[in-house]
Amino acid sequence: MRIRTAGVVALFALALAASGCGGDSDEPAAKETPKAAGGKLVIWADDKRTAALKPFAEKFGQENGVTVDVQAVSKDLQTNFVTASQQGSGPDVVVGAHDWIGNLVQNGAIDPVQLAAEQKSGFNETAIKAVTFNGQLYGVPYAQENLALIRNTELAPEAPKTIEDLVASGKQLKAAKKVTETLCLQVGQNGDAYHIYPLYSSAGGYLFGTGANGDYDPKDLGVGKPESIEAFKKIGALGEKGEGVLKRSIADTNSIATFTGKKCAYLVSGPWAVADVKKANITYDISAVPGFAGGKEAQPFVGVQAFYVAAKGKNKALAQEFVANYTTTPELAVALYQAEPRPPALTAALDQVKGSDPDLAKFQEAGKNGQVLPAIPAMAAIWDPFGKAEAAVIGGADPTSTITAAGKTISGQIK
Amino acid sequence: MSTPLSGPGSVTQTPGREPAGSPPSRSRPSRSRVTRDDAPITLTGLAGKVLLLGLTAGVAVWAAFPLIAAGMWVGLALLAASTAGLFYLYLTRRHIPAKYLVPGTLFLIAFQVFPVFHTASTAFTNFGDGHRGSKDDAIVAIQSSSVTQVPGSAEYALSIATKGDPVTGPLVFLVTDPGTGAVSVGDTGGLRQLDAADVTVATGGKVTAADGYTVLNFGQASSRSREITDLVVPTAGGALRSSGLSRAYEGKAVRAYEAGCDCVRDTGTGQTWTADEQAGAFVAADGERLAQGWKVNVGLSNFTRVLTDENISGPFLGTLIWNFAFAIGSTGGTFLLGMLIALALHSPRMRGTNLYRVLLVLPYAMPSFAMLLAWRDMFNADFGLINSLFGLDVDWFGQAWTARFAVILVQLWLGYPYMFLVATGALQAIPRELTEATSVDGASPWQSFRAVTLPLLLVALSPLLISSFAFNFNNFNAIYLTTEGAPFPADNPTNGATDLLITYTYRLAFGGQGAQFGFAAAISLFIFAIVAVVSAVSFRRTRQQEEVYA
Q: Which intervals hold domain ABC transmembrane type-1 (chain B) (predicted)?
């Protein structure tokens, strides 16, 4: 069988291309029709929140005759968002932590949100403060979180008032072979600035001073100052060469599991740990992270999860409508709480769920004196050097030279 | 592999067979073209051709739309030219060699050459966080993020309306003053009050209907989103802007760009920030920078920074040395172990070889990603399996040398089955007659191994060893998933004892300190150059070796 290949192939390919063409040109045309009736709102969030957001986003879409597409970005949401928005393929709304704001603003990725005074007053004050950057409100907060001390009440019935109390009781338990670790506070090989901060602040250390308007001042860096060295001397004394309370072998991967495995009586963690603790059937209680005896109060960081309007979104007006006028309703905050139990930032929503979940009130109480996690871009320079210096000091390095060097590295990175 | 690979039955190799890996003979029969031309066209061949070319056309069409949308005409022209070229190539009967070479070449350009050029061009810029877009983008971002509500001004209920067609007609704002309840219509010309009799206002103040205007519903309005956000209605104190589709506020852009002085001026405080084209940022007289910068060409400064900044160049050399040690150690270690096991199993006296083979391939069959995480946990100083199993108290990842030893050990475990497999294959290709002949001549097994087996093995395996070296030189997962580069010296958080150049670069580009793509690209080019030189030298030497033994 001989066929004129060239001709036949060309014909087939053309037909295919034409059908491909037709398909492609048909699609936008088909999309055009609903588009005339309603735009499309694209929301990016992480996996857990996506599930909670979907029904509400759909409801918003149905009520207003628009399509809402909630897309899960499971990894590196912030980086992906910045890159995508630079290329013009980003979403209209993104959900994320408030300490992203500095970076998102310097990359021109988000726009300020205008809330009416009565809308603002519905929120917890700390939450509003967290999403305010350079005097502008950059997002609508919906949940708030901070560290607390979760303890196994079977092993430790009393909440310790100071770190010294905690160490003493932990040591007793250890001597009685009831536990193998005094405290489960995640450090890891490379340190963890977020989890050590309550102790650091209690011992007098600070990260950034605040300017006249109450904003963090990147020029006033506390790391490397005498206060920070003193703080790390105290932290180092709890480290591997000292009391052995803080250890690099306890990391983000095993701290909660060690606690639920009843190898330690105390865990420093956030609301996200509670689900695991409950699953392990441990009787627990939540109290504030204790400070050093005679020191300042231990201040955990308060972080806020928020909705942002993408500056380069295709449907900004609708995005602003959704963020400023729809996410401020308590129903959504309650649904998001049910998807992941973090205390809602809306006072009305918190009151609604507080009754059925006493842990929320305890976490809030523990974070009452917390410090808003700085959102300035300079904060990005802190995490890595600070954490590594912490790990080194806990491993037995000299606090003075380590922290001085970390301070130098950090200030060198702040432009 | 249905027949046993070793044992008495396997000595069936034809003597004088070319060792694996040697180049195929170059002289091709010159009549091939004639036979091709006369070759009958089979239905499967035709169907395959139609399918593949159809797919090519489909991909081209699919890729064309975004290019057209973005107005990238050069890219579109390239796409059209390459598609047309492909069609031409496979629809004619000529250019047989090109039919084989072109697809590979296209992929090579798309996935190798283009990224290298892209990296190279990035290395000369300050591309990174705060310097991602153009200057215009930065100006827009600065102005729009400085819009604040005029103090004491009211919040208006807003409806979007038009006098004409909902899809194309010019838009106006219908706003209700919360104090007086008066309804006004606003456009770029300003606000005009409407007669209360002509409008219907819902509770909450939103206008639902107005004489002479079509009020747009959310769906209609949102499809004209950009026009709505761009519509600014001037007022005495600032301008009315939309906040979503149902509220408007009186706002004012506090910072504005002035082309005359090429600067940004704050209308509130009068402060100015002048554009600095070297730094790609607006800088005030006191050195304060506005956060939103833009991408500029910085020349060679990224490269000179690697060489001159002593915080980078000092550790860079140490990292480079460790990087070589790691690549050589993991390649050499896995090769040695794999080869020894292959030799042991190759021995005719060995029994149960198939079982051993299955067991040996197991680690290779596991996903290395998960295995690396498992090993990381096993090396945990307090809870890890290794310390508790051997009763040790070693702070594995806390000390430089134990950490280095640990990562190489993990690599050895992960990599030796591969080397074992290829060494087994190569051993089969070495005729047993050769070793038998040496033993007849009175050589010890060691001598025959050194003089015959090893050189022949190396000829076959050298290309694999070189590529394995290149892979391990940039083995990001091996380090990042186990130690993340730890331990770090107490006074230097940027270079860890187990950091490879690639993990170090990754931390610079995407790490905690914010992305510095330009600088990371410069380091990538250094890595590229190093790997390229090492590979080129090794391949040269291999070729010489082949000439000796072939």
A: 320-538
Measured distance CA(B248)–CA(B261) in Å, rounded: 33
* Band of pLDDT at residue A38, cut at 50, 70 and 90: low
DSSP symbols for B510-544: HSTT---HHHHHHHHHHHHHHHHHHHHHHHHHHHH
Structure tokens that stand for A131 in this block: 């999403």
**Polymer length in residues for chain A:** 415
Q: Which domain holds residue A87?
A: 40-145+303-372
CA distance A74 to chain B (A): 17
- In chain A, the residue whose alpha carbon lies closest to the alpha carbon of B288 is A415
Residues 260..299 of B with a Cβ closer than 8 Å to A: which?
Answer: 289, 291-293
- Reported as a single tens digit per residue, the pLDDT across A333-364 is 888 888 778 889 999 998 888 888 889 889 98
Which residue of chain A has the CA closest to B493? A385
Render the burial of A237-262: b for 16+ CB within 10 Å, e for the rest. ebbbeebbbbbbbbbeebbbebbbee
Using a CB-CB distance cutoff of 8 angstroms, which residues of chain B are in contact with residue A316? 225-226, 229
Any idea which residue has 């909660």 for tokens?
Answer: A256
Tell whether A141 is within 8 A of chain B (Cβ): no
DSSP per-residue letters across B366-424: S-HHHHHHHHHHHT-TTT-HHHHHHT----GGGSHHHHHHHHHHHHHHHHHHHHHHHHH
Contact call for A36 and B220, based on CB within 8 A: yes
Query: Nearest CB to A24: which of B62, B225, B249?
Result: B62
Nearest-angstrom CA–CA distance, A168 and B339? 56
CATH code for B148-253?
Answer: 2.40.430.10
pLDDT of residue A55: 87
How many of the other CB atoms lie within 10 Å of CB of A301? 23
- HSE, CB side, 13 Å, CA atoms: give it for residue B487: 25
Count how many pairs of residues, chain A against chain B, have C-beta atoms within 8 Å. Answer: 252
**pLDDT tens, residue by residue, B301-352:** 889 988 887 777 777 888 889 999 999 999 999 999 999 999 999 888 888 8
Q: Does the B308-549 domain belong in CATH 1.10.3720.10?
A: yes
- As a whole number, mean pLDDT of residues B70-89 equals 89
| Per-residue pLDDT, A19 | 38
What pLDDT score does B270 carry?
Answer: 87
B486 to chain A, closest Cα gap in Å: 7
**Among B327, B483, B321, CA closest to B395:** B483
Mean pLDDT for all residues in chain B? 84
Contacts of A119 in chain B (CB under 8 A): none
Q: Is B66 within 8 Å of chain A by CB?
A: no
B497 Cα to chain A: minimum distance (Å): 12
Q: b/e map of B286-299 (b: 16 or more CB within 10 Å)?
A: eeebbbbbbbbebe
B431 cis-preceded (ω within 30 degrees of 0): no
**CATH 1.10.3720.10 domain span(s) along chain B:** 308-549
Residues A186 and A279 in one domain: yes
Q: Do B135 and B257 form a contact (C-beta atoms < 8 A)?
A: no
A52 in the same domain as A201: no
| pLDDT the model gives residue A69 | 92
Total tally of structural domains belonging to chain A? 2
Neighboring chain A residues of B514 at a CB cutoff of 8 Å: 103, 377, 380-381
